[in-house]
Design goal:
Layout: H1 3-16, E1 21-25, H2 35-49, E2 53-57, H3 63-71, E3 75-77, H4 87-90, E4 105-109, H5 110-123, E5 128-133, H6 137-140, H7 149-165, E6 169-173, H8 174-184, E7 193-198, E8 203-205
Parallel strand pairs: 1-2, 1-4, 2-3, 4-5, 5-6, 6-7
Antiparallel strand pairs: 7-8
Amino acid sequence: MTDGACSDCRQENVTKSQKLVVLSISTEWFSMRGGVSTINRELCIALRRLGHTVVCAIESPTLEEIQNARSNGIRLIPPSYQPGYDRHQALGVPLSLPDGIRPDVIIGHGLHSGPAAMLQQRSLPGTYRIHFIHVDSGAIEPHKDHQDHGTRADAKTLDEKLLASSADLVVGIGPRLYKAASHLVLGAMPKPVLLRLDPAPARIVR
């Protein structure tokens, strides 16, 4: 079976499912280190309100985070301990999921958790992966305090391109990142579905 056929099978399985099991991967639940966590948290809560089962894997969930997620009907799970791996790297190792939980959809956010989401998809054949684009590395790196910003921008853009091109659905946050996402998936076979998400108020444009 070709990669294109496999992608069609995954999309068909997701389409037929009235209620999905969603595994979202992020670094944290509360927004202590930036806006990516906010997008992930609000997305998870919205999906749960639609009736889907939502599990979110984060590096080191605190008791307060676990209780907050649980109050919204969401389970937080940590990665298993892996010798030689830090907590972030361990997010890419097959997770100890709750009994009876087998994800239909896996969500990754940019370079924060996109690589872990891709690795989780490999360990869960038949799952559908969504990759969110939160930054345009080629545009933002030159504004950072690095002497080698050109090399860093090229490396990060390549990584994002590989993650986006291999996903089933790519979501750009806002019009500028939607445009960046469309460039990232040029030439991808099969080409992922592209969506634009405009937060506050949330609005999806296809």
